[in-house]
UniProtKB/TrEMBL annotation:
<protein>
    <recommendedName>
        <fullName>40S ribosomal protein S25</fullName>
    </recommendedName>
</protein>
<dbReference type="GO" id="GO:1990904">
    <property type="term" value="C:ribonucleoprotein complex"/>
</dbReference>
<dbReference type="GO" id="GO:0005840">
    <property type="term" value="C:ribosome"/>
</dbReference>
<comment type="similarity">
    <text>Belongs to the eukaryotic ribosomal protein eS25 family.</text>
</comment>
<feature type="compositionally biased region" description="Basic residues">
    <location>
        <begin position="22"/>
        <end position="31"/>
    </location>
</feature>
<feature type="region of interest" description="Disordered">
    <location>
        <begin position="1"/>
        <end position="36"/>
    </location>
</feature>
<keyword id="KW-0689">Ribosomal protein</keyword>
<feature type="compositionally biased region" description="Polar residues">
    <location>
        <begin position="108"/>
        <end position="126"/>
    </location>
</feature>
<dbReference type="Pfam" id="PF03297">
    <property type="entry name" value="Ribosomal_S25"/>
</dbReference>
<dbReference type="InterPro" id="IPR004977">
    <property type="entry name" value="Ribosomal_eS25"/>
</dbReference>
<keyword id="KW-0687">Ribonucleoprotein</keyword>
<feature type="region of interest" description="Disordered">
    <location>
        <begin position="108"/>
        <end position="132"/>
    </location>
</feature>
Length: 132
């Protein structure tokens, strides 16, 4: 049997250069630009009705959440939250200098539940004084 011939290495796609010759320059990427949002600065009737009906059902309410979902700007979102607080539709959870967090107002609060449960309890009457 004849000995096998060794295959020659395939030619490299780029020959190695020793000096700092002309190289392919890196192209600058065109960075991603954020799309400009066009949020409303005043309520129209449709968005105002949506604010009154849907927002009190949200679990977490912040100005940024309202701005994102209702397409209103931040100052209008803060005003809407103040309006809903005055109506009693939402309640404050946490307030910070930079962020306020609200949630839906529950109909039964702890004091109401406690009062309702005590109404059903039997009351113990005062013992009658003994007759002498």
């Amino acid at each position: 049997m004849a000995p096998k011939k060794e295959k020659a290495a395939p030619p490299a796609s780029k020959p190695a250069k020793s000096g700092g010759g002309k190289q392919k320059k890196k192209k600058w990427s065109k960075g991603k630009q954020k799309e400009k949002v066009n949020n409303a600065v005043l309520f129209d009737q449709a968005s105002y009705d949506k604010m009154l009906t849907e927002v009190p059902k949200y679990k977490m309410i912040t100005p940024s959440v309202l701005s994102d979902r209702l397409r209103i700007n931040g100052s209008l979102a803060r005003r809407a939250i103040k309006d809903l607080m005055a109506r009693g539709s939402i309640r404050m959870v946490s307030a910070h200098s930079a962020q306020q967090i609200y949630t839906r107002a529950t109909t039964a609060t702890r004091s109401n539940v406690h009062q309702n449960s005590s109404d059903k309890c039997y009351q113990i009457s005062q013992p009658t004084p003994p007759i002498a």
